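agent: user wants the full assembly modeled, not chains individually. Plan: 1) parse entity lines 2) check alphabet per entity 3) run joint structure prediction 4) return tokens. Steps 1-2 passed, two entities, 986 residues total. Proceeding.
--- entities ---
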Amino acid sequence: MPLSVTMSCVAILLVATCVAIAISRMQAASSFVYGLTLLSSLTALFAALVHLIGGAPMSLMVTLPLGLPWLGAHFQMDALAAFFIIVVNLGAAVASLFALGYGRHEDEPHRVLPFYPAFVAGMNLVVLADDAFTFLASWEFMSLSSWSLVMAHHRARDNTQAGYVYLVMASFGTFALLLAYGMLAGPDGSYAFAAMRANHPSSGIATVVLILVLVGAGSKAGLLPLHVWLPLAHPAAPSQVSALMSGVMTKVAVYAFVRIVFDLLGPPAWWWSMVVLAFGGVTAMMGVLYALMQHDLKRLLAYHTVENIGIIFIGLGLALAFAAHRMPAAAALALTAGLLHVFNHSVFKSLLFFGAGAVQTSTGERDMEHLGGLIHRMPMTAFVFLVGCVAISALPPFNGFVSEWLTFQAILLSPQLPSWGLKLLVPAVGGLLALSAALAAACFVKAFGVAFLGRPRTDAAERARETDKWSLSAMFFLAALCLVAGILPGPFIDTLAPVAKGLVGDRMPTQTAVEWLSIVPIAESRSSYNGMLVFLFMAISGTLAAFAIHRLASNALRRAPLWDCGYPDAGSATQYTAGSFAQPIRRVFGTVVFRAGEHVEMPPPGDGRPARFNVDLRDLIWDTLYAPVADGVVFAADRLNHLQFQTIRRYLSLVFLALVSLLLPLAIWP
Amino acid sequence: MIRDFTLQGAQMLLVLLLAPLLTGFVRKVKARFQRRLGPPLIQPYRDLIRLMRKEVVLADNASWLFRINPYLIFAATWVAAALVPTFKTGLLFSWSADLIALIALLGSARFFLALGGLDVGTSFGGIGASREMMIASLAEPAMIMIVFTLALVAGSTQLATMAAYMNSPEVGLRMSLALGLVALIMVAIAENARIPIDNPATHLELTMVHEAMVLEYSGRHLALIEFSASLKLLLYISLLACLFAPWGLAVTKADSISLAIGVLAYLGKLLVSGFLLALFETTIAKMRVFRVPEFLGAALMLGLLGTLLLFVSRSF
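--- prediction returned ---
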């Protein structure tokens, strides 16, 4: 039942796509498309939720006569798929709600509306697919529809380049996944997931598959060094789509990784986890450092997605390590931590992208150096954005903290692992995780402080207006979810139990049974956390302090010009900017990671030109990995260019030579 | 049950009442070392009360966040300070947050403090917020690594369990604990903005961090922020005391005698550590801001080393 409901919702979305092509230039098209997407996503969300809360007792399957004639298209919904269907459709439903208001500001709705439901349908189909062919077709569908959305504003500066890089990276990722499935299917070509699950590949093949999946799913998720497209493409799309791409599509990539590595690939070898952990740790750390150096609000958020993907992969890597050493309880803890972070991140990252979108429509600016003081003009947006910032910085009592806390608890269990490699790697990964958590707080103090606090830096920021009710309701819903998932994490963890049970054979202790609604990863004497009580204590003591002081001492208040040590300055340009806020951290970390350098151009005395201060940052990953490839392609294209200006005789002889050289291997093949 | 509630309440009040006294004591001892008479011990209480009674002068463009910030910071710090065992372990709500959660609570307080520095849009506030977050970006991971070290030794991140373990004879002398202690002291100095990282006694210096963030605060808001700073100092000293000097803590029994011993021992520990802090601050000079990362990087490496040793073998 839940599967057929979800499939019908997907069908409705595909119909909506076709209708949207026809009506997209009409006035009501925006409300129609987003309203329909909202309703069908909500339906699918509830169907999957019912399935998962019921414990997903059996995986549902259906085969449709589509795709390859001898194979058909298989779809299924087990606990893992149900969880990701929830994540996808929650994100899609809220994004549609946001877009009901936000989408009205769209200049070219015909470039967005048809692709939006298609994109949502594509993500659903990837999660539901039960054979390699359907999976890859849906994956490409998802990539291409999101690419069209990235290219929606193709005339804006840099967007075509973003689209080009995205297209190349997406094709590259799909290619890797195609090869991975080919290896898994074996010589018989059994493309159904059930058949892949049944035959365990040899260790050599499993290794190749693992690497291909890390490349394929990792490039979509944003694992370093395959993240380069993400900070270009995510900000280029309209904000509801940025939220979906960053909050949800990267999670679909995580789904692909979990599905193949935990489910299809057979029992893990211990060193797989080392690869995953190393990539996860480096991704988390580098992602947040990149984010700290940005001053474009949406690009900062996109880089921060890279960090969170790293945290998720740390959880998954630990789960692999424990599973390989047959420690199912610990594996369940690590896997639950990773998956809970998948959910949490989809919630607060969508919220933050919505906030950035609201700022962008209201001021026309994404650059934080041109914002400031928005808390006065957009108080509601500022409030929800602040909630998102606190949640993503992993601070109690919000939800981001819970999943990071669980990851830390999983790390504390890992000295029991017997492998020496892991014994040395896991503490380092723990250190990277702790560093990235602390840097994330710095990053979001910067994001909120520079964009929303202080004084307006431009006229546009001065004239900002509060955003519309639809957008606000979507953001308030997500902010409330951040708080609820933070103070009552127990039910959320319990909902994940069937997923962990299905993948690693064990589950975390039932949390709703614990007294006072605490969460307890292993045993209460080891560790426990009660978000509810912490929140209540803070609320009570804060209120008590406020009440006592106002009653007993003074509540007098006087407004006056700001003090600033007696030297208040008139201009808003002397405030701290995004660049100056990050300067100390740039000096500490950036001199190595980004080869950061600062140059001051001081004209000689008497010269009227202004002094200039420049900061150089180099993206070493782009310079060392991507630039040589790009240069190589350009060089080869230049060299081969003269082949295009030949006479007809030469063309024919070239074709003949090509044919002969291709037939030659066949002829000498034994 | 009522007794449990009373004990928990007593702990919350105890930290609240003792925190300004500790600050006053450190100032007094420091003044004596500098051959000054120094303010009386109860001067911090007088300052707080006077500040609370004054009207708040708020900058024209201060936002709602600026006004609720002091309460948020105070609430988070107070809750965190009340969760560290002082005279007794295993109080009624001691399990509601373990050591990692406690550090994160302090992180929440710092997050809002830094936002408060940026709110009015002055360059002093910005410099303070930016440097505070730079220091935190190294101090917090160092603290997490120290927690890892301690948690791996004690087999728990619950402070009650850890303190009980540290009080038991099975601890012994351990390399990892020594590393953890040194690192924790370094982090505590940095987190509380003491010399050599920051100078709590200065205003209007280009090197200051904490005082720069709170420059625009006045009246009751300033009182709450100063109070939170005192509470934070008390918290770190309580933490050091309950983990590395757990003697006298009422661990299991809760009869009046062991509680009295617990309270007396706690007061003694505060006296000793306050004296040592004043001595340390008098003998050392403040360092430049960009030497701080080296200092905290050393703490981080010590913590990491302790954790690594324990991953290699539980016996370190």
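agent: reporting back. Chain B touches chain A through 89 residues (CB under 8 Å). The beta strands of chain B are 56-59.
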